[in-house]
Specification:
Strand content: 25-35%
Distance between the termini: 57 Å
Helix content: 25-40%
Shape: globular
Order of helices and strands: HHHHHEEHEEEEEHEEEE
Number of strands: 11
Structural class: alpha+beta
Length: 291
């Protein structure tokens, strides 16, 4: 089979175009991988060197301190130490954090959506729970196809609600506190969520109740930026204190910013009312993080 010179040239050009296209695809994929890796390293530090440094160094040091020493150390962190903690989602120094009941129900990988418990108000029955869940969906313009009762304990009810989409379904976990544990008035401030902890009144004012409610409502299920929390109990109050590392990611060319905030929640044992005091311990720019 003979190929004319013109045909041969056309074949070479076609091969070169194909090779160029393949090279462009490979280059794009490499760039995507690099961007993804960079994003992981700079924003979550799940797989980057930061986590290794923190885990093997600073975190081990902090984990070996008693409560008094740890509090003093957290309030005297250098900017570089705070940066390492702020970017590390594993930097949670609470050894006795309340965990949710499992109720012999295994949540699958598609059941990771979770609604902050304290934003839902409280309930006295399963019927009230279902109304709260349905109202929550209605306010957001959709409905749940099924509200599955998972279980309950002395503090809360738990549900798994399913919302069917076109080709899949999304399941959402709801923990709703019982109103014989605490009640929460609706907020009158349109900028707030419907229910906030500032408007709560504890019916049970013991240390374990305050710990359970605030651990589940503020730390273990709904937040991953609380570095440490401790509790103090005296004849007048139960005090729950958190140290929270917040990161505000900068736009292109702008460094990220970080805050270390100490928040004190005080539950009055006579009234059950909650007062809150915030103190900003650090408010800095993380130099060198701009992209």
């Amino acid at each position: 089979m003979k190929i004319s010179l013109k045909g041969f040239v056309s074949l070479i050009i076609a091969i070169m175009l194909i090779l160029g296209l393949v090279a462009a695809i490979i280059k794009a994929n490499i760039k995507k991988e690099n961007n993804t890796t960079e994003s992981i390293n700079t924003q979550s530090s799940n797989l980057g060197n930061n986590e290794v440094v923190v885990e093997n160094g600073l975190l081990k040091e902090l984990e070996g301190l008693n409560q008094e020493e740890l509090i003093e150390r957290l309030e005297d962190l250098t900017d570089e130490e705070f940066k390492k903690i702020a970017y590390n989602p594993e930097a949670i120094l609470v050894k006795d954090l309340t965990k949710e009941d499992k109720f012999n129900y295994a949540f699958g990988i598609d059941e990771m959506w979770f609604v902050t418990p304290l934003s839902l108000g409280t309930a006295s029955s399963r019927e009230e729970c279902e109304k709260i869940i349905n109202d929550y969906a209605k306010e957001r313009g959709f409905t749940y196809n099924n509200n599955k009762y998972v279980g309950e304990n002395d503090y809360y009810y738990e549900y798994c609600s399913e919302r069917k989409l076109t080709s899949t379904s999304v399941r959402t976990r709801f923990i709703i506190f019982k109103n014989n544990v605490l009640t929460i008035k609706e907020s009158t401030n349109p900028e707030d969520e419907k229910y906030i902890i500032e408007n709560a009144t504890f019916a049970k004012k013991d240390e374990n109740t305050v710990k359970t409610v605030l651990d589940l409502g503020l730390v273990s299920l709904s937040k991953n930026d609380v570095v440490y929390r401790y509790i103090e109990n005296n004849s007048s109050n139960v005090t729950y204190v958190t140290y929270k590392a917040e990161v505000e990611y900068g736009d292109t060319g702008v460094d990220d910013k970080g805050k270390l905030i100490k928040t004190t929640y005080t539950v009055d044992k006579e009234t059950g009312n909650v007062s809150i005091e915030n103190e900003t311990l650090k408010d800095i720019a993380f130099e060198g993080t701009a992209e």
